[in-house]
Amino acid sequence: MRFAPPVLELGNKLAERMQSKGPYLALHLRMELDVWVRTGCQPGLSHDYDEIINKERKQRPELLTAKSNMTCHERKLAGLCPLNALEVARLEFNAMQAVVSGLRQCEINLHSLPIFYI
Questions:
Q1: Do 36 and 46 sit in the same domain of this protein?
Q2: pTM for the model
Q3: Terminus-to-terminus CA distance in the chain, angstroms?
Q4: In terms of residue numbers, what domain contains 22?
Q5: According to the per-residue pLDDT averaged within each range, which of 74-78, 93-97, 107-111 is highest?
Q6: Predicted confidence band at 116 (pLDDT cuts at 50, 70, 90)?
Q7: Who's near 103: CB < 8 A, 6+ residues apart?
Q8: What is the Cα–Cα distance from 15 to 80, expressed in whole angstroms?
């Protein structure tokens, strides 16, 4: 696969910024069924939804790109799983609390983290 020059240029620009200005946090807020199937992780939204993911994963094992010898919990602890909706909400809530408290008791200075503009 080859990317069009503008897409390649934008990707290189973002990669350079992340390498030179890190650390960074990337959020992908549109997690779909295939993402959970491929990663081998559980979204944790509900027992029913987790069962849908497990059923799809069993029917299409070729989609699993994660280490198949690890449980979902082990993958999560190893940092191999994307954040689920609840974790993103907690992260946003904690960030808002830090801003409201004037960053006095926050371990990270949010202003020191790079902001990426496209």
A1: yes
A2: 0.49
A3: 23
A4: 1-27+83-118
A5: 74-78
A6: very low
A7: 109, 110, 111
A8: 20
Q: Which amino acid is at 9?
A: E
What is the arithmetic mean of pLDDT over 28-57?
Answer: 80
How far apart, in whole angstroms, are the C-alpha atoms of residue 33 and residue 43? 9
How would DSSP label each residue in the chain?
----HHHHHHHHHHHHHHHHH-----------HHHHHHHT----S-HHHHHHHHHHHHH-GGG--S-TTS-HHHHHHTT-S---HHHHHHHHHHHHHHHHTTTSS-SS-GGGS-----
Same domain, 12 and 44: no
Q: Please give the distance of CA 51 from its chain centroid, rounded to a whole number.
A: 21
Amino acid at 54: N
Residue 2 reports pLDDT greater than 70: yes
Residue 40's pLDDT band, with cuts at 50, 70 and 90, is confident
When divided into structural domains, the chain yields a total of 2
